[in-house]
């Protein structure tokens, strides 16, 4: 202190220099960001522990405090009606009292076969109030898949949407559901809603909401089921605490009447939409709900609801870019978009056109063991699914580990001498394995021990260690930016090289006139591995004059020769599943055999095919004659 007082000029210069160095180190290594992430996660754990100690881990208690703070604030906007927090609490209590009168008991699950409606949200928090939770069933499911999801939920009561298609799907299964499962079906039609209004708005007994454990589901979600029956995944109460705190801190959510409003038209049976909105709602951030995604209505909903943040999934942004630019493109209050699946090839294009300055892109799965987040405001992390500074890279070096995979079998490659897995360089990437202390770190699939066991890998790098298989391949650059490569099963091997479909799709998507590219590998007679095929949806104005020769030159200039798709399939419609993510399975199953085309893809028989024939450099038509040459061995690729 004496030195400082005797040398004020030198001290000031030293402090200024130190501040400059500190700022430089923080900018280079992102230390402050990493510290804030760790602090936020610890805060979530602390809040959860405190609530658990009081027996009030149930999110219902968070909502009750929010209602006290903002009783007259608009909590939920829909085009039909807006609801204050007081409205939500009163209507939730009516549903809760109905559930109790219907025989629902603490700890039960009630199945929701519902479209995006306010009643989904209201009935959800009603179930929390009596110590229960919903099982969110994809309302597109029918027949065996629908019965399967309802069976594993263990629910004895299902709320069915009043949509006639939903009712018809459920009626087809009624005998099985009522007879085998003893399940009651209740349709949320106008008569039922009138019946609900006859129940009291008084709070249900507090003891029903008390004592909810961390492993209890805040909601039961399901995997997409593209390669088999959907699997149930509990989004646990404990996970809700850590997720909500981390996301709110990272996004800078502002609660209250003058705060943010989140909009989503993504399906509520999907975790991204469901958890985004419910976390906002219970913590005092207003939400807006659209019935379903529509390019025509999306921005109208955004403007009318005065949303400041919207939720996206998969190819949503690409759909919104498809129509011609409009003077209304920037007529909104949106400051940020939040979700997963924003492709690098359209990231900056979307930001520039629509004037959305911030992107909250996360990478996670329904199971939730491996997660990344990228709160992006500029070019540095644009296109990446997450970012770790120096501190996080050090902490997670032996936690998130990339390994080499055999693309044909899907097995982790192991050293022939040691028997241990082959660790890949982060910059090269591979399937991410997550080091876990015990099997309890993964809550497992709901009532499916065999599927749960398949996610574990033992003796990976040493005897007795335990890892969780993410099923996703990613790479991380030396500066900490994470990039998605492929999902397990999508990567294919061609010419003794591994081809990452996401990388190829990204390149093709940058070519003028290509609206979307879905890349996959197809099996061919007399050839090892799988040849690349790209299902292309062209923009309407490009279809008549599209230059396929120029496309071939462009792809070849950007990718190694083995990664250039041998085949093109020209499709009229997007090749997506219900969550707006690309679906490769039916395309891969059909391949390029003319006899199979149209057996898995509706109207697929009308698709045109092109190929790069042996010795050619450009794409030319492909049909039965060309397939015959591959089949008889006269054409070798």
TrEMBL record:
Q: Which residues form the AMP-binding enzyme C-terminal domain?
A: 503-573
**Key word Endoplasmic reticulum present in the record?**
no
Q: What is its main location?
A: membrane
Q: Name one GO biological process term.
A: long-chain fatty acid import into cell
Q: Which residues form the signal peptide?
A: none
Reaction equations catalysed:
a very long-chain fatty acid + ATP + CoA = a very long-chain fatty acyl-CoA + AMP + diphosphate
The GO terms describing molecular function are: ATP binding; long-chain fatty acid transmembrane transporter activity; long-chain fatty acid-CoA ligase activity
Q: Record's GO cellular component, any one?
A: cytoplasmic side of plasma membrane
Membrane topology of this protein: Multi-pass membrane protein
Residues passing through the membrane, by range: 268-290
Key words of the record: ATP-binding, Cell membrane, Ligase, Lipid droplet, Lipid transport, Membrane, Nucleotide-binding, Peroxisome, Transmembrane, Transmembrane helix, Transport
Give its localization. Cell membrane; Lipid droplet; Peroxisome membrane
Give the domain of life.
Eukaryota
UniProt keyword Amino-acid biosynthesis, yes or no: no
Q: Boundaries of each AMP-dependent synthetase/ligase domain copy? A: 65-446
Entry-linked PANTHER family = ACYL-COA SYNTHETASE FAMILY PROTEIN (CEFD1), PUTATIVE (AFU_ORTHOLOGUE AFUA_6G03630)-RELATED (PTHR43107:SF6), LONG-CHAIN FATTY ACID TRANSPORT PROTEIN (PTHR43107)
Annotated family: Belongs to the ATP-dependent AMP-binding enzyme family.
- Which purpose does this protein serve, as stated in its record? Acyl-CoA synthetase required for both the import of long chain fatty acids (LCFAs) (C14-C18) and the activation very long chain fatty acids (VLCFAs) (C20-C26) by esterification of the fatty acids into metabolically active CoA-thioesters for subsequent degradation or incorporation into phospholipids. The transport and fatty acyl-CoA synthetase activities are genetically separable and are thus independent activities. Esterifies VLCFAs in the peroxisome matrix. The VLCFAs are actively transported into peroxisomes by a PXA1-PXA2 heterodimeric transporter in the peroxisomal membrane.
Q: What is this protein called?
A: Very long-chain fatty acid transport protein
Q: What is the scientific name of the source organism?
A: Penicillium canariense
